[in-house]
Amino acid sequence: MIEVSNLSKHFGSKTVVNQLSFTVKKGEVLGFLGPNGAGKSTTMRMVTGFISPSSGDASICGVSVVDHPKKAKAHIGYLPESAPLYDDMTVRDFLHFCAAMRGLKGRSGKAAVDSAIETCFLESVAPQSISTLSKGYRHRTCLAQALLHDPDVLILDEPTDGLDPNQKHEVRRLIKRLGESKAILFSTHILEEVDAACTRALIIDQGNIVADGTPAELRQQSGTNSLQDLFRNLTTKETE
Amino acid sequence: MFTIFKRELKSYFTQPTAYAVICIFLFMSLFLTFTLGNFIKTGDANLEWSFFFWHPWIFMLLAPALGMRLWSDEQRSGTIELLGTFPTTTWSAILGKYLAATVVWFIALLLTYPMVMAVNTLGNPDNLTILSGYIGSFLICCTFLAITCLISAFTRDQVSCLIISCSICVLLVVIGFDHVVRVLAQTFSEATTDAIVSTAVLDHYQPLLRGAVRIQDLVYFASIIIACLLSTSAILNAKRA
Ligand SMILES: Nc1ncnc2c1ncn2[C@@H]1O[C@H](COP(=O)(O)OP(=O)(O)O)[C@@H](O)[C@H]1O
Ligand SMILES: [Mg+2]
Asked: What ipTM was reported for this prediction?
């Protein structure tokens, strides 16, 4: 479903993503781990077609993002890192706008909006202006936007960032449930989420893959049965 | 494109921006017409000097004020990342947003219609000349909006966008003045001066006020607008390269 091959990105002379290759199949939830600045968001922006790669390609359901961006984007639901929204709209209007941008208008648009609102528990704030929402609701509204067109591929950049423990738990459960029928790539730097939601995890550091496997395999690899130790051993620490 | 157009237009009218800009425009244009324009005394039935004359001066401040959020706001709030991952093209987003802004100005100009009714009751104006004045006025406004649109693609800061766009619009207006032309003539050769002066908006606006719709003026406005919108697209794409 998601096939990334030799994806690289340079900003000036700085290599942020270096020859990354991986695949995510249907029914898989791939956790994308790494310290801040490892290149997670940059990779996701390339896979979603928001920025173009310096070299390499990503194909979504067999469609290349570089060659056919419009067709590939139609298969993707994307939650950007900061959960950006149009503050001057209400939650429902915003979702209607996003649905229309996905070609869902009229009755099918309304059905899509209603089901996304239900999935993300937004009923109580649907008529409210986005500028008055709390952080958790903002995040969920942006997540709802990614689910509107029932995409085959979900790309979520730190979907649990800034949520309270209850909301984190809900979102993880949602990811797990959606992962049964979709291919999901989500980034995080919270290690517990690997166990809570992922079927497989990648650890990247400075744009390179340093570990890849199921949570159990990664734990074994660490020698001490702890993801925390593995993560600390494999990634560059700022203090070094 | 139409979806973006609709959203933008709605957002202008759910926020105070459009109302404020329209009100200030109506106030300024009528105020200048009756004071500096001396509308009553001169009996300028075609509205050429008393009314339309002031429009570039008002637009050079107000058009950037309306257009400054076009792309700066998208970039600051990150919503450009949503637009950029919807299955559309950059070009249709630019067009949708730009057209929505021009429609706001179109409405503002429509609301000056009482002026036309007034001159028709008081005197005997040439309504075709007035129409051509409106066309000129709208074209100037669209030109200034396109310039603002381009500047807003460069920066995520609305205030710097406003200041830079205003400066460019002011520049385009004042280089047409005799004073400025004389200074230019002293420093540059004749050909250079002519070239610079021919970019002045007033040179292309005044024929329209007199009722002369000339192809070269329409080409002038259209080419600035198209060039600005194409550059906007180039800038936005380059930022994502
Ligand atoms: N537009 C850009 N220009 C220059 N450097 C960038 C740009 N975007 C990201 N970077 C750099 O790329 C690195 C990786 O960033 P990012 O992908 O956001 O990391 P992560 O999401 O893993 O925390 C950072 O060091 C950041 O400074
Ligand atoms: Mg990030």
From this structure: 0.90
